[in-house]
From TrEMBL, chain A:
Keywords on record: Cell membrane, Membrane, Transmembrane, Transmembrane helix, Transport
Matches recorded under PANTHER family: INNER MEMBRANE ABC TRANSPORTER PERMEASE PROTEIN YCJP, MALTOSE TRANSPORT SYSTEM PERMEASE-RELATED
Places the protein is found: Cell membrane
Membrane topology: Multi-pass membrane protein
GO biological process: transmembrane transport
Organism from which the protein derives: Nocardioides iriomotensis
Assigned protein family: Belongs to the binding-protein-dependent transport system permease family.
Lineage, top ranks: Bacteria, Bacillati, Actinomycetota, Actinomycetes, Propionibacteriales
Record-linked PROSITE patterns: ABC_TM1 (PS50928)
Domain ABC transmembrane type-1: 68-259
Protein name listed in UniProt: Carbohydrate ABC transporter permease
Automatic annotation (TrEMBL), chain B:
Location within or outside the cell: Cell membrane
Name of the protein this chain belongs to: Sugar ABC transporter permease
TM segment ranges: 47-69, 115-137, 149-169, 201-228, 249-269, 307-329
Alphabetical list of Pfam families matching this protein: BPD_transp_1
Amino acid sequence: MTRTASSRFWLAIGFLVVLGFSLGPVLIMLSTAFDGRANDGSRGLLPTEWSLENFAFVLDEGGFVTYLRNSLVVALATVVISSALALLASVAVSRFRFRFRTSVLIMVLVVQMVPLEALVIPLFIQAKTLGMLNHLFGLVVVYVAFSLPFAIWTLRGFVSAIPRELEEAAYVDGASWPRMFWSILFPLVAPGLVATSVFSFITAWNEFVFAITFLNDQDSYTVAAGLRQFFTQYGTDWGAVMAGSTLITLPVMIFFVIVQKRLSDGLVAGAVKG
Amino acid sequence: MTTSPDVQPGVAVTESRQTPAAPSGPAAPGGRPSRRDRAGNGLTPGWLPWLLQAPALVVLFGLLVYPLVRVAVLSFQDFGLRELVTGESSWVGLDNFTEVLTDPLLWKVALPNTAVFAAVNVFLTVAVGTAVALLLAKLGPWARGILTSAIMVAWAMPAVTGTYVWVYLFDARDGFVMQTLGSLGLVDPETTNWFTERLPFFAIATANVVHHGFPFVAVTILAGLMTVPKEMLEAAALDGAGAWRRFRYVTMPLLKPVFAVVTILSTIWDFKVFTQIYLMPGGSGTNREVLNLGTWSYITAISQNRYGLGAAIAVLLTLLLLVITAVYLRTLFKQEEL
């Protein structure tokens, strides 16, 4: 009896510790963002004075309306392009046997390990030569490349999980390959596309290194790059930094929590079924 | 036992279950007859797979493979602002590598800041993640749902904003922790700055990286824990094994592949840590004590316009990661054979 009581006690302690560690930074971010006196040196777990002042400041003077729009455009373009390319490629590697198939798969695996720092130097030189700096499209192309390997790898599992008999039935009914792809494969892979789209979106939305390297014109900043302006040599406007951070973080978090079930199911299915 | 397909969901999250080795084996994954695969059903032309994957391959080659080759070439060149403008370049052989390898900054600062930092962070991330997974497995469905959502929130926190929050917490003037400790009289906020010294700097970075990384480990290991047969744990309990021994001698061996994958992936990620260091005070080059290979390479190339030298550092980091990747792939191949 005492044993269960004490183990319940320790479980409760563990629960609270993990909860606090997980959510603590987020709560600090939110409370500072909503604190009208964040820069007066008042520090508490709750705002001393609830206000939307910081948000108004970053959206208006901080230029975050533009940055949010830029980030959204970049992220959506990345999702659309990378989903399309990954879907086609995953069908190729999971439904066909061809020469170099294994090489293609190994390449897809290995390029995921490449450090960004190694790519940023040559791509910066390339973008500068091509006059692509400050063009959002340049960023989109880079982010598509970053999100592709993971998307191909995950979708590959989904495509393989579709029984071949369904495909054959379509052929028997006289469907051409494109018709079969559109009516059979595409709808069945859609849940996998949701999972990979979320990842592509987050990759593009959160990316920072290329954003600060490629963009030096304020009008083309994405949100991650735009936050830096609140750090000046005279000090940091923490209220603005946290309000901007909240605007960046909240959409991603809501997304993550809502799709968490589908996400983990999708990943599990994607990887287990070959 | 470890080959039980149900163990795989854990590995699954890491998209690693399938290895490129599988297709060359006699039976394709999923046990499909390979004759049909090779024939492509006889209804589709042989060039179709190439047409389908061409756009993806163009992007992968153009933006990942070609730049890698280019960075390797750059590392043998003297490439600065002038070359960037003229497009010319001059070969300097191994000069860049000699300069990097003889720089005490590499051996005393950048390499330890990369390797030791990664080792500590991987250990802590996997340990915390495993503990949280074990906790989640013990909780009732209600509490587990809440806690899973909470760690998802931690996972979803972007590196950029997460780093700013940790900096803010420990900020020298306005930091929450500094003010709290200061009001208790434990530190003097006027004279203390945790970011200027190497150890506290990396301790804060560690908190940040572990906070960002443990949810992945926890979710993956939890998926693995669900597959451990209850009967085995009960049998061990009947034989008198306590909680630790059950974990050490039943759970751990069964989940070895899962542990291997989360450890190796965490190692790869923690070697590449950039944003979390670069955005901390002094991390963008003003404090050379806290450079790691990634930030050193970036600052040398992009901020100081010494692209060749920066490329040489990047090549060293990439080689380090390639070695780890090779270990990773070997682990996967082994798993497939089991």
